[in-house]
Amino acid sequence: MARTVTARSLIVGTMRLLGVTAQGEEPSSAEMLEAFDRLNEMVDSWATQRLTMQVVSRSQYDLVAGQATYTIGPTGTVPTPDWIGARPESVDLVTLLLSYATPETELPLGALTEMAYQAIQQKTLENSQPTAVYYEATMPSGTFSFWPVPNTAINPVIVYAPQALAQFAALTTSYVMAPGYVTALRYNLAKMLAPEYGKALTAEIAMGASDALGDIKRLNVPMMDLGFDPGLLPHTGRYGYNINTDQ
What we know:
Layout: E1 3-6, H1 7-18, H2 29-46, E2 55-61, E3 69-73, E4 83-84, E5 93-98, E6 105-108, E7 110-111, H3 114-119, E8 126-127, E9 132-136, E10 142-147, E11 149-150, E12 157-163, E13 174-177, H4 181-193, H5 203-219
Parallel strand pairs: 3-4, 7-9, 8-11
Antiparallel strand pairs: 1-13, 2-12, 3-10, 5-6, 5-12, 9-10
Helix pairs in contact: 1-2, 1-4, 2-4, 4-5
């Protein structure tokens, strides 16, 4: 069941778990602010772990005729990005939306590696529809580069990207957390704060932090299509597999 939590309630619970404060006591203002920074530091580190991300966002962005490269980042990022949205650490899929088709059709674009994009000799080659995209997790905004360069703006693109847990904006801002996240945050924050307060990391806290983080990672393992190595298939004739004979 989802739970509503604030950074303040997480920190208060963590301090009691560590034995820094007793039941009914609260951390000082200085301790609260320091723990708040550590909490966001930990959430920031979780953004590098794919299995801490519960949601894959689907976002639509417009292309500009003759423009190959687009930056993406949140409002307030300097310089202002071409696309306003969360900067993804990685991208699962980018598709070209044929909005003029009936019904609308999404065409998956090939994902270029750094070496594959470098190997393209004519990066300014234009076409009505790009067929591939290269994503760089640059800072402060991510960068998408399309090839061939679209020479029309009629087709937008759809970006499917894992959505990291948002950092806490303020101590008293309320957030709705998916099952397991509150416990994982509290126990792992306790593990992070223990050395700073001279507290021995107990086996209970260490195990609780590991188990809680493992629980949400198991929940977030993405479902994948079953694949089969084509090298194991015969090159000619019809083929199949019989589950009864294992042939």
